[in-house]
Structure formats: structure tokens, C-alpha cells
Amino acid sequence: MAMIQKSDKIYVAGHRGLVGSAIVRSLKSKGYDNVTGRTHSELDLKDQAAVRAFFDEEKPDVVVLAAAKVGGINANNTMPAQFAYENMQIQCNVINESHLHGVKKLLFLGSTCIYPRMAPQPIPEDALLTGPLEETNEAYAIAKISGLKMCQFYKRQYGDDYVSCMPTNLYGPHDNYDLNGSHVLPAMIRKFHEAKVNGAPSVELWGTGTPLREFLYVDDMADACVFLLENYDGEQHVNIGTGKEVTIAQLADIVKSTVGFEGEIVWNRDMPDGTPRKLTDVTRLHGLGWTHKVELEEGVRLAYEWFRENVDQARM
């Protein structure tokens, strides 16, 4: 296993996003001071020549690939070609240039949407490619599966120390609060907050409220990523989650009470629910020695505090 050093130059692709910014915070808190990143305007990861020039110039020792085109059900449903093409471009460019430039360790971040729609619950890592995907995010899932497989293939063919992790639903500082592209928890925070501020009598939420979901505070996810960089070199990808789940209706009640909204919740049953249940099996990660620290109620409180304090620059 390639041991990473505190002095290594670590390139975090996607360092401004929800995931990347948390990984940068975690690395720096653990004494990794030589961390670098590029904004999208500084470096378009879809541009192979630009990515090559960046690696030629910066010569990173370690790469964390957290950059991706992401979005909720609506965005995935309406732009599947873009989600497939752009994510595959980003991954191919960063992974191959890492190989060509002798990067000693790479961590690829995927998502638990890689698993079959009707995977066994909780979902073990070996459920991958055992059945059809959830149609509403199939393009994103296919792209992430291809990235995970590329890491395995580069390890198999060249011995590169490239590992992959699949985080569950994430939330926290620097999340996306744009209702056209956001995930369920930040969307709820924004909806309840605006309803409270505007004195609205009710908040409309999509679906039936019955699907079961798992949520991981993003700083816990980042802590797990640094743990894997330091301790893991296996070919098998690793799930990152809490192993705990709530219904969407229970989540709504937690967010509603955290925000202090006193109106009612109206469920729009004409809108899709998505996968009925999605819980990760985190046995492998627990076996390696890592478990989450932030429980959902505390995490929602922290996320809402950040949102209130940063509403002017939050992605809305």
C-alpha cells in the first residue's frame, strides 16, 4: 500500500463542492497542509489537454476525485446524456492522467445509486451489477460504475493504488439548495425555512413520504475518506454510511422542527418517490475500524445553522 505523507501534494478535484470542501477541511485538520484544488473556471476537467497540462505543472502525489456533475431526480431524469457524458469525461481524464504522472494514491468517490434498484437491504458492496438500476438516475449510476471499474482495472493492469468509496446520501455545509437540482434534505431545509420566513400555512413535499433513506453528515464522510486514504488499498470499493435509516416523512418532521416551521406538510403524491429503500451495509468499513459520529438530528441542526448563516452565498 502506498503510504501517504503529511508533506504530499494532495489534489482534491471538486474542492469547492459539498464533498470536496469537506475533504479539504478534514485533510487540513489532520495535518495535511499541501492541499490544492482548481475551480471549474480555472480547470475544466472535461478538457483532456487542460487536465494533462495541470498534472504536468502541479505533479500531485495523491488525488481525491470528488468532482462530478450531480443533481436530484429531476435533473437526472431530464439530462441523462449530459450526466453520463460529462461524468465519464471527468473520470477518464483524471484517472488516466494520474496513472501517466505516477500518482501514488487515488481515491474515487462514487455514490450508492450504483446499486440495483431492488438490491438486498442493507446493500453490500457485492450487490453491484446484480440487477437493473433505478431508472431515474441510471445515467449517473452508469458513469460512477465505470469510474469504479476503471480504478479496479488500473490496479489490476498496472498495480496502481487506486481505491473507490461509495457514500450514501450526504448533507451539510456547502450543499446545493437549488430546488431544480438539489437532493431531498437540502430541498427540505430551504422549503421549510422560506415557508417560516414568509408565514406560509403549508409546505409541499414530493411523493408519499414512505421511502426509507440513510443520511450521512458530510464531515463524517470526509473523515472516512481520509481514513481510507491512510488505511485501505483493496480492489473492492467500500460503502460509506451510517447503517441507519429514516422514512422521508420522519426526515421532514426532523427538518420542520429544527427550522421551527409550525404549518402543515402536504404530500404531492403525483410526484415520484424514487427507490423504495436504500440502506448501505457498512460492515466492511466498520471492520476496517471507522464508524460515523454525527447523528441525524445533530447533523440537521448543523446544516441548518450553516444555511442560515450563508444564505447569501449558498447555491440557490
Protein topology:
Elements: E1 10-13, H1 18-29, E2 35-36, H2 48-58, E3 62-65, H3 73-78, H4 80-100, E4 105-109, H5 138-158, E5 162-167, E6 169-171, H6 184-198, E7 202-206, E8 212-213, E9 215-217, H7 218-231, E10 238-240, E11 246-247, H8 248-259, E12 264-268, E13 277-278, H9 283-288, H10 296-309
Helix pairs in contact: 1-7, 2-4, 4-5, 6-8, 8-10
Proportion of helical residues: 40-55%
The number of helical elements comes to 10
The assigned structural class equals alpha/beta
End-to-end span in angstroms?
42 Å
Low-confidence stretches: none
CA-atom Rg in angstroms: 19 Å
Major sheet strand order: 2-1-3-4-5-10
Largest sheet: 6 strands, parallel
- Global shape: globular
Strand-residue fraction? 5-15%
Order of helices and strands: EHEHEHHEHEEHEEEHEEHEEHH
Instruction: Quote the average pLDDT.
Output: 95
Q: Say how many strands there are.
A: 13
Description of the molecule:
The chain is of the alpha/beta class. Helix content is 42%, strand content 15%. The chain contains 10 helices and 13 strands. It has helices at 18-29, 48-58, 73-78, 80-100, 138-158, 184-198, 218-231, 248-259, 283-288, 296-309, and strands spanning 10-13, 35-36, 62-65, 105-109, 162-167, 169-171, 202-206, 212-213, 215-217, 238-240, 246-247, 264-268, 277-278. The strands form 4 sheets. The protein has a 6-stranded parallel sheet, sandwiched between helices. The protein has a 3-stranded mixed sheet with strand order 11-8-13. Helix 6 (184-198) packs across helix 8 (248-259) and helix 8 crosses helix 10. The chain is globular and about 60 Å long. The mean pLDDT is 95.
